[in-house]
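Morning F.,

Quick status update on the modeling queue. The single chain you submitted on Monday has been processed. Sequence for confirmation:
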Amino acid sequence: MADKKIFIAVVGESHASPEIAKLAEEVGAEIAKAGAVLVCGGLKGVMEAAGKGAKSAGGTTIGILPGSRREDANPYIDYPIITGIGYARNKLVIKTGHVVIAVGGSYGTLSEIAFALGYKIPVVGLNTWQMIHHNGQMDKEVHRVNTAKEAVVIAMKLAREAKPIEPPEFQK
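Structure tokens below.
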């Protein structure tokens, strides 16, 4: 993957606190500095903050929108993709990324983390959900980090190493 663009999906809540929005903006800027493309849901909150950060650092952004209007995209989206499929678009956001960075998050973010883990797409978590198995053990599949820079460094490494697989129901 060294010669191809890396796509990093950034997921998080649409009503982000100022602290979470700041982290997301830093993540977006770091993604752009790393030369990767930012993919998100294209709306407000973490999505808008990450897009703002990416654009401030000269990056490229893709927003996969739940509705049918390009105009609904936040102002930092270069390529708005309209889907008209509501929250089902979360799966498209995840599948477009080589890796996912979850910043904060509500239940939509939780679903995106689950989709990514199900598809064996690496997940980096920054101030987000903690996964605990039914046996009480912490799930190590979400790579927990403390800073935006660390999130992107780990994400780039994981993206270069990743070999996503399809769940059995999609395999030929």
